[in-house]
Specification:
306 residues; 1% strand; disordered N terminus; disordered C terminus
Length: 306
């Protein structure tokens, strides 16, 4: 059966919109985490407060969107594994954001959709179209073009290198996590996935504080981390709901729109404009999204491993 039957156009369009919104919110998280780190917050402190401050927002959303029992998990084991892996991703990604420029850290994180597509084919048996392969490849080329603008920096040292390593590890773990979330949406509600993650990630952050220490809170830190919690809650909701509505391969290219948001925020907040290679990257990323959205694929153009 063709994808157009399994995923009606209106459902796919709503999934794309949710995925783009999640990318925008994720960029907001990156800006806030970078700001908090530059203001002196430790990695463990950022993970703890980013997760904990999103819990009241998620509970409010559950209370107005449906019965509270919808927040209860069906598979405790799956939620626990998702929370632990997600907490690990937060520690690695937030460390990278503390060591690297936001746009650079965000660029590395966009290896995730590249890795998530083959993982979904292998682990979930999702069918992968030739068009999706081309779209993700275009997005990857755009990411490389943007990465080139910042990687060729002779002033970099161990801090930046360690940030790059942490970012790459975060992207690999997040690719597996994406596949897990897609599978969980078959039996778990969006609210249960989001709330359980926030609770478990808070515990991961608390453990991390024992290793990274704690910086006394200031008004600036509260502002950065409260905003990160708000963006985080919105990202959980939109990303999980997008995964529920469409296959990972169909949405992967749209993750790259977050780079466009990152460039826009860099300009609005810091008056930084990208160079020629970065503009080429943006063009490729936009082209990837357009290709992925272009007409339903006919049956017979799929690649599948199982």
């Amino acid at each position: 059966m063709a994808e157009a039957l399994a995923f009606p156009p209106d459902r796919l369009r709503s999934a794309i919109l949710l995925r783009v919104l999640a990318a925008a919110m994720g960029t907001g998280i990156g800006i806030c985490i970078h700001g908090a780190s530059k203001a002196g917050a430790t990695t463990g402190q950022v993970v703890l407060l980013r997760a904990a401050l999103s819990i009241p927002i998620l509970l409010l959303w559950v209370s107005v969107s449906g019965p509270l029992k919808a927040a209860l998990p069906n598979s405790t084991r799956a939620h626990l594994m998702r929370g632990l892996l997600g907490g690990t991703v937060m520690v690695l990604n937030f460390y990278a954001l503390g060591q690297l420029p936001v746009t650079h850290a965000q660029t590395i994180s966009y290896l995730t959709p590249i890795l998530a597509v083959p993982a979904a084919v292998i682990l979930l048996g999702e069918r992968l179209s030739v068009k999706a392969v081309l779209a993700v490849s275009l997005g990857f080329a755009g990411m490389i073009a943007m990465l080139y603008t910042t990687a060729a920096n002779p002033d970099w040292g161990w801090a930046e290198l360690s940030g790059m390593i942490a970012g790459l590890c975060s992207a690999m773990v997040m690719a597996l996590l994406r596949v897990m979330i897609r599978k969980m949406t078959l039996t778990e509600t969006t609210s249960s996935i989001a709330i359980s993650f926030a609770l478990i990630a808070s515990c991961v952050g608390l453990v991390a504080v024992a290793f990274t220490g704690w910086t006394p809170m200031t008004g600036e830190l509260w502002a950065w981390l409260a905003a990160a919690g708000l963006f985080g809650a919105a990202t959980h909701i939109t990303a999980t709901e997008a995964a529920r509505r469409a296959p990972i391969g169909a949405l992967a290219a749209y993750d790259y729109t977050g780079l466009v948001f990152a460039v826009a925020l860099d300009f609005l907040l810091f008056s930084n404009l990208p160079g020629p290679w970065a503009w080429l990257g943006i063009a490729l990323i936009v082209g990837a999204g357009g290709l992925a959205a272009w007409t339903p694929r006919p049956e017979g153009t799929w690649l599948r491993l199982k």
